[in-house]
Specification:
This protein has 448 residues and is an alpha/beta fold. The chain has two domains: 176 residues, Aspartate Aminotransferase, domain 1 (Alpha-Beta Complex); 252 residues, Type I PLP-dependent aspartate aminotransferase-like (Major domain) (Aspartate Aminotransferase, domain 2). Helix content is 42%, strand content 12%. It has 13 helices and 13 strands. The strands form three sheets. The chain has a seven-stranded mixed beta sheet, with helices on both faces. A four-stranded antiparallel beta sheet has the order 9-10-13-12. α5 links the parallel β3 and β4. α2 packs across α10, α3 packs across α10 and α11 runs parallel beside α13. It binds pyridoxal-5'-phosphate (PLP). The site of pyridoxal-5'-phosphate (PLP) has 14 residues, from α4.
């Protein structure tokens, strides 16, 4: 097992002096405390005994109906009896691996991929093939070439893992043509697809695209009955990650195995928070203050913060850097001058009071993506976005200066408001050249 860089980063988010652009945090301060109190009071008055009791492994019926409502808002019809309520979407990834993966089995994933899936895949000893994404998500022709190669080696992936909307960490969205082709390829080759979609409803511009689950259902010819796509959803980003509630909608045989796996993991997800969701959805119905209105508020807020981050990047990151412009979600993926290792840069940046996720966390080999970083714009104020990016920009310039002096080559031309900043700090304890091997056990990722 390996530590998730992201989890370690969470420790940093607790430090008040650090602006954390690292975690996948939504802004929970936007949820009205009075509403939280009144929904909890409803649960307490109307169903305290049930809330405090164990619940069914597959989840409470009222909660699965809320899930069907969320999926309908995504344009995806489902049958609530094909849902399993889980302890966050994270548990879906774990249960799918638990059900399907023996050591050495192949998973095909995107490159970069969700940093939280990396330690899960690695704990189940999967052999993960990562396919480099571009502005339209995973290129399906590259996927097909990989599948052909695997097939010539007598290997068959257990599933293809994709985050089609506002990918974490890449920020890009899979095009409609690729979605259609991915479902066709899955059907031609009878391969399962795990569609991880926490962010679909957090779209700030452009047209919503159909889920892979709905495209597969169409191909089957029966609404709400995909037979190769396992859909992962979560309340974390549209309501609260503290509830720890997610779900899978899956073909029946897979669903049964997920259920068995969940029995062994935690028996059931919290009835307290499942009933919170049911009461929250019920309170909002017809009142104009429902869950969708809240999501609408989040979209407006996060759109502004995304724009703030894009303009701060424009001001602070040099010519050598490039970054994605996400149409939704929580993250921008930035790639720097190739000589910069963002794991080392993070050590310097945290000293300057800012954190991000280094790119390596999104690759199974722990080595690729070393010049990239994931930046969250949703969980911090506009002011802190500007200040955080300013601090990272400064750390980059310091690093480039040092690399220039070590190599004897001049540092590349600098841009940004601090181009003449002369307070470069001593970096002997920070910069590691040449690149390091695998981290030794027990070391924190930001020390690497
Ligand atoms: C792509 C993706 N999948 C799954 C999750 C897990 O979320 P949770 O367990 O909070 O539902 C996240 C959280 O950031 C994510 O970004």
């Amino acid at each position: 097992m390996k530590s998730s860089a992201m989890r370690e980063m969470m420790a940093l988010t607790e430090r008040p002096d650090v602006i954390s652009l690292a975690g996948g945090l939504p802004d929970t301060s936007t949820f009205p405390p009075e509403l939280y109190a009144s929904v909890m009071a409803d649960v307490a008055h109307e169903s305290a005994a049930r809330a405090l009791q164990y619940g069914p492994t597959e989840g409470m019926t009222a909660t699965t109906h809320c899930i069907a409502e969320v999926m309908a808002a995504e344009g995806t019809a489902i049958d609530p009896s094909e849902v399993i309520v889980t302890t966050g979407g994270q548990q879906v990834i774990d249960l799918v691996c638990k059900a399907l993966i023996d050591p050495g089995d192949v998973i095909v994933a995107e490159a970069p991929t969700y940093p939280g899936a990396v330690p899960t895949f690695s704990a189940y000893q999967a052999a993960v093939e990562q396919i480099e994404i571009d502005a339209d998500g995973m290129p399906i022709d590259a996927l097909e070439r990989t599948l052909d190669r695997l097939s010539s080696e007598g290997r068959r992936p257990k599933f293809i893992y994709t985050i089609p909307n506002f990918q974490n960490p890449g920020g890009v969205t899979m095009s409609l043509a690729r979605r259609r082709r991915l479902v066709e390829v899955a059907r031609e080759r009878e391969l399962l697809v795990l569609e991880d979609n926490p962010y679909g409803l957090l779209r700030y511009e452009g047209e919503a695209l159909p889920t892979l689950y709905s495209l597969d259902s169409q191909a089957v010819g029966r609404v709400g009955a995909a037979d190769l796509v396992i859909y992962l959803g979560t309340f974390s980003k549209i309501l609260s990650p503290g509830l720890r509630l997610g779900w899978a909608v899956a073909p029946r045989p897979v669903l049964e195995k997920l259920n068995l796996g969940k029995q062994g993991a935690d028996l059931c997800s919290s009835p307290v928070t499942q009933m919170f969701v049911a009461a929250y959805f019920a309170q909002g119905r017809g009142s104009g203050t429902g869950w969708l209105e809240y999501v609408e508020k989040l979209r407006d807020l996060y759109r502004t913060r995304r724009d703030a981050m894009l303009s701060a990047l424009e001001e602070q990151f040099g010519e050598q850097a490039s970054w994605t412009r996400p149409e939704g979600g929580l993250f921008v993926w930035a790639t720097l001058d190739e000589r910069i290792d963002t794991t080392d840069l993070l050590a310097l940046a945290t000293k300057q009071g800012v954190a991000f996720v280094p790119g390596r966390a999104a690759y199974m080999d722990g080595n690729s993506g070393s010049s990239s970083m994931r930046l969250n714009f949703a969980g911090v104020t506009e002011e802190n976005i500007h200040e955080g990016i300013r601090r990272i920009g400064k750390a980059i310039r310091t690093q480039l200066d040092l690399l220039g002096s070590l190599s004897g080559r001049p540092a590349p031309a600098r841009v940004g408001p601090e181009a003449s900043d002369s307070d470069a700090r001593p970096l002997a304890d920070v910069v590691a050249l040449p690149r390091r091997e695998e981290p030794r056990a027990g070391r924190r990722s930001q020390d690497r």
